[in-house]
Amino acid sequence: MDRIQSFFKNPIFILSKKNPFMLSRWSILYVLLGLFAGVFSAVFWKVLEFLTKLLAGFQGHYIILIMTLSGLGIGLLIYFLGEPGEISLVIDNIRFRGGKLDPKNNPSMSLSSLLSISSGGSAGPEAPLVQITGSFGSWFAEKIGLEGEELRSMTIAGMAAGFTSLFGSPLGGALFALEILQHRHVVEYYEALLPAFLSSCSAYFVFLFMTDMGIGPTWEFPQYVPGGIEDFQYAIGFGMAGAAVGWIFYGIFKITKFSFSKMALPIFVKTTIGGLLLGCIAYYEPLTRYFGHDQLNEIVVTKGNWIFFGTLALLKILAINITVSSGWRGGIIIPLFFVGAVAGRFFMDFFPSENESFLLICLMASVNASVTKTPISTTILLTGLTGVSNFTPVLFASLSGYFLSPKAPFISSQADSV
């Protein structure tokens, strides 16, 4: 208590307390947290870009070699630096440990995820950023003596800042950080909503300033032209198709998770096996390599029939689940968007549409909502990432994918929430 009292005696906080506006000392704390998270996220992204360009030079059979060696390196990092945890552990800590995330896992998570993502694993940087920046919030809160819901809100604000930095959507990032912690289909920690928005906005500003990313859409989709009531009918149908893909994803996950869990081997052996398998898949189909951030634009213009896109979707689903199950580190949101876009191209051969981008976006939303159980924030995120002007029909697809998804969740700590 003495620490927090002395902290708030700072002239900045005294001034904020006496100002006639809604700005408060708490607002300043959340903005400061977002600024710090934005700096870290930008540095992480710059390092990731450098490593990716370095390792992308290996082509042909060398892909198998470099991904196998990367798997060994990932496993050794985890073996010597400690288990970095995963999103299920983060959710458990938020819900059952008062929001405390341990920063001691950050070195292992940072290094293993950088190698995992840059070498071509089918997982993205969103999960590492969420966990690391969330632990910043937790550490910051403890240092100034916060407890209870105030500490939890600071941790969630840190998570939202990391997520927003990558996706460029303060609204979507804040909602995702809350929705993924869901309890019985609602945002449980609503008191953290404004803190999450504040930290997200400041993190996004810093991230844009330090990187060369613009504020336009990430993926260059043809603009969706809204129609009539039939758009909602199509959206529900596409949502059902996305849910079917989600069931396939979950089935393959159960197989890969069971297979690797039964291996009584050190972590570095499992990650090496995972790297070998991922390398073989990437050698056969290069579009399965990496987490899909750049590859998704290629899907929009790639020529192919339903056999090609159906095979690509299955191989990408397999690659994502091998990445996760073998111990490689990273997040699955952008990879799931990639799977949804590929599935959209698959269904185009059977259900031709004048609004092809609408079909793709609906499948992207429903597949991700089916697996991550985040239908609301998924819709908001896709609005910014694809530049869609009318997202209401997409919400129908997202909700359809969510409610028709497997009750047993991919993220195990959501099991009592659905």
What is this structure, in a nutshell?
The chain is mainly alpha-helical and 418 residues long.
Write the layout of secondary structure elements.
Elements (H helix, E strand, L loop, with lengths): L1 H6 L3 H8 L6 H31 L6 H20 L5 H10 L9 H14 L6 H18 L4 H20 L2 H10 L13 H18 L19 H32 L5 H18 L10 H7 L4 H20 L7 H16 L7 H17 L2 H12 L5 H12 L15
Helix pairs in contact: 3-6, 3-7, 3-8, 3-10, 4-6, 4-12, 6-7, 7-8, 8-9, 8-10, 9-10, 9-17, 11-14, 11-16, 11-18, 12-14, 13-15, 14-15, 15-16, 16-17, 16-18, 17-18
Protein name: Chloride channel protein
Organism: Leptospira neocaledonica
Keywords: Membrane, Transmembrane, Transmembrane helix
Could you describe the 3D structure shown?
With 418 residues, the chain is mostly helical. The chain folds into two domains: 2-210, Clc chloride channel, CATH 1.10.3080; 230-417, Clc chloride channel (Orthogonal Bundle). It has 18 helices and no strands. It has helices spanning 2-7, 11-18, 25-55, 62-81, 87-96, 106-119, 126-143, 148-167, 170-179, 193-210, 230-261, 267-284, 295-301, 306-325, 333-348, 356-372, 375-386, 392-403. Helix 8 (148-167) crosses helix 9 (170-179), helix 9 (170-179) packs antiparallel against helix 17 and helix 11 crosses helix 18 (392-403). The longest helix has 32 residues, at 230-261. The protein is globular and about 60 Å long. The two termini are 38 Å apart. It comes from Leptospira neocaledonica. InterPro entries: Cl-channel_core, ClC, ClC-type_chloride_channel. Its main location: membrane. The chain crosses the membrane at residues 28-48, 60-81, 156-181, 193-212, 232-253, 265-284, 304-324, 331-348, 380-404. GO terms for molecular function: chloride transmembrane transporter activity.
